[in-house]
Amino acid sequence: MAGRTIIIDDIVNRTAYGVIGGLEMLAPFEVEEERRLYPVILQGRAAAAALDDGAMIDPAQRRRLLRQRHAGQEAESLLLRATLGLVRTRVVERGYRFGNEELESAGVEGLVNALRRFDPDQGNRFSTYANYWIMKLVNQAIQQQAGLTDTEMRLILKLQRLERVDVSKRLTRRDVAKSLAISQARAQEVMQLSRELNARRFETTDLSNASHVKLRSDPEDAPAWVIGALREVCGDDFDAFWQVTFRTTSIEELAKAHGITRQGMAKRMERCRRAVKASPRAEQLQHWFDQQ
Length: 292
What we know:
Elements: H1 2-12, E1 16-20, E2 23-26, H2 31-52, H3 59-94, H4 100-117, H5 126-146, H6 150-165, H7 173-180, H8 184-198, H9 224-234, H10 238-245, H11 251-258, H12 262-278, H13 282-290
Antiparallel strand pairs: 1-2
């Protein structure tokens, strides 16, 4: 027990340098620091399994198992918080302007999933293993909010990997079709979808990202033509679109109020954004937003 205390206490006194998903980030562990936690985690999991087994345990042994389980949970918490920085790194690398908080939340969910499945005995570092799950959940969040099908998202990711092979090369429709084993017409569609996603990366503020602009939260304060144009393209979703755009209500709250899933509401909002951008008054609306 004393050894466990030394290991945990030696690492726990690290300075937090940010927050993601309500969790404080710690500086990443060195390889040896991380490996010192593995035995504690494995012992804690074994203790938890023994406690859940339901077998008769004498009081002294039960207290020992409870201490081991607690130590293991504490070690897992430290490992998770020290890997949170990887979530932000991967979100920034993706860079899509759906609102980093939403993508970071997806990344944290992936990190938690990775921690539950991680087996230290396999010999991999946790960050290496977690990277797959972080990117999986972040990409799913992008896909859901953009209203893409599984096939579209899979092809877009393949195209982006292909583009990273030689960033100086400009891929043609024929190159993409051959590499992805699809028709040239389909390749053109995938290239266009990829460009639309890339256009969301760290651009100037527009209708898709109003988080840094002081905007009117009451529709009655906006010009009649703005409200009319938005109502025309958004229809019954106007009120929800307005609230999400001006950050007066979260997507989660709107989804609950409408009795649908968060993903369903996010897709409806993305359809509104697309409709606004495709409307005849898109440039005028953009100009109005830019002036706020």
